[in-house]
Amino acid sequence: MTDCIFCKIIEKEIPSYPVYEDDMVYAFLDITQTTKGHTLVIPKKHVTDIFEYDEKLASDVFTRIPKIARAIEQAFPDMVGLNMVNNNKEAAYQSVFHSHVHLIPRYGKEDDFSMTFADNGSKYSKEDMVSIAQSINKEIKK
Question: Would you name the residues annotated as active-site residues?
């Protein structure tokens, strides 16, 4: 894809700070460095988001993430946790439309990164929860 910044990074048309590379995956430092060591893991094959993955591509990308995460942890002994974030589609805050996974090291609650989730559980009855689960399960079985 000619206009994709991540494809250009893979092709070395745009410089990056690589941390891992093989035939299927490229991992490099995010230029924002939300926290020290913030790394992006991307498939070398251009896919827009998780909805375009097939099983092989998912395996190629996601089996490498623990190795990269452990390397980050070893490189920064003061790290106390790690967020793995994957945004898909604009409404979910995806800003580069080449699939990527953020590995964001955490150094404490005051490290300038936060994620919060609203607790909407009280809005759904047991029957609602069963219906939601069944709807998803039905699609998985197709």
Answer: 100
